[in-house]
Amino acid sequence: MPATKGYGTPNAQSPLAPVSFSRREPGPTEIAIQTLYCGVCHSDLHMARNEWGNAVYPMVPGHEIVGRVTAVGTASNRFKVGDIAAVGVIVDSCRHCAPCNRGEEHYCDHGATLTYADKDRVDGSITMGGYSSSYVVDERFAHTVPANLDLAGVAPLLCAGITTYSPLRHWKVGPGMKVGIVGLGGLGHMALKFAHSFGAHVVQFTTSLSKKADAMRLGADDVVLSTDAAAMKAQAKSFDFILDTASASHSYDLYLQLLKQDATMALVGLPGKPASIEVGNLIFRRAALSGSMIGGMPETQQMLDYCGQKNIVADVEVIPIQKINEAFERLLRQEVKYRFVIDMSSLT
Ligand code: NAP
Ligand code: ZN
Ligand code: ZN
Prior knowledge:
Strands 3, 4, 5, 8, 9, 16 and 17 form a 7-stranded mixed beta sheet that branches. A 6-stranded parallel beta sheet has the order 12-11-10-13-14-15, covered by helices on one side. The chain has 11 helices and 17 strands. The longest helix has 14 residues, at about 295-310. The protein has helices at about 40-50, 100, 150-155, 160-170, 185-195, 210-220, 230-235, 255, 280-285, 295-310, 325-330, and strands spanning about 5-10, 15-20, 30-40, 65-70, 85, 90, 115, 135-140, 145, 180, 200-205, 220-225, 240-245, 260-265, 290, 315-320, 340-345. By secondary structure, the chain is an alpha/beta fold. The model has no long low-confidence stretch (mean pLDDT about 95). β10, α5 and β11 form a beta-alpha-beta unit. The chain has 2 domains: about 5-160 and about 315-345, Medium-chain alcohol dehydrogenases, catalytic domain (Quinone Oxidoreductase, Chain A, domain 1), CATH 3.90.180.10; about 160-290, 3-Layer(aba) Sandwich (Rossmann fold). Bound molecules: NADP nicotinamide-adenine-dinucleotide phosphate and zinc ion (ZN) (2 copies).
């Protein structure tokens, strides 16, 4: 297969810069895709700068991939050359443990293989992500894309979409429930769209008052500035479920106090530092604090099909790959509205 071009980094301190490397020819059940769009997840920034301490270099980030199939393995039957295929955060798993058999490959007992900066189960190399011209993946870990959806807007569904869809489904968010979403970024705006679409009464919490009108347009019934103590107090003990998508360290107690008795707050945002909580906020209301990671392959496909039926995509700012370092800085300034997506044709 021809050399693959991409943007990557040799260490945690350097900006992303052009790199080239090679990918294998697709094996029997694999497909090769030409990358068309790749979303820019805050996890890419956490990983590139080794904020979680598990980075492997050289690193080519990117796990919100939409592309066109250019080759299919001899035993693959889900895709044909020319189809659109999408790839998310994981590209392999053991495929035989209980979570894998349930279609929850992301919770694989032996560890799922990440789309980048992980050890490839097939050839032992370091996986290289979607900020690149091509990808090779087993068809079990690729998804079909509804034909009616804008492809740039689809890319973020592969991480931001499934990471919010899955917990909202797991905790059965729907009509009659009051649901809070913390943080209006890439994940947050998808959580807002899904919770609204599932019929819940949705309150968006934000630190950026300037996002209020957007939050209402995206489906919020109410918007609360989380730095406004009186406005927060007015929401006390009223929520059935809260999904926290914030990327930086902040107080979880602020939100635990807003839960009703027996309600749950689930975390999907993963700041780089450990947190502490006031345990009384759980005990006094038998409240639950939980977490959730992306979603399995069947649920990811279900989410994409749901988006096709409801015409849901991410709100995106399409950028050329040459602007990726600037995009990372704008992510840190909470300026993204609401997901950067790289147009991969800018690579050539
Ligand atoms: P993003 O687009 O940068 O959005 C993060 C949002 O968090 C910001 O827009 C901001 O919202 C809020 N925020 C930032 N700093 C804050 C602070 N100090 N206090 C309170 N709120 C703050 O990031 P993203 O791509 O949505 O990712 C969000 C987090 O989820 C990241 O940590 C990422 O690594 C993680 N993640 C987890 C999974 C998973 O499987 N669990 C999957 C993907 C991503 P406002 O401006 O509205 O306040
Ligand atoms: Zn992600
Ligand atoms: Zn497994």
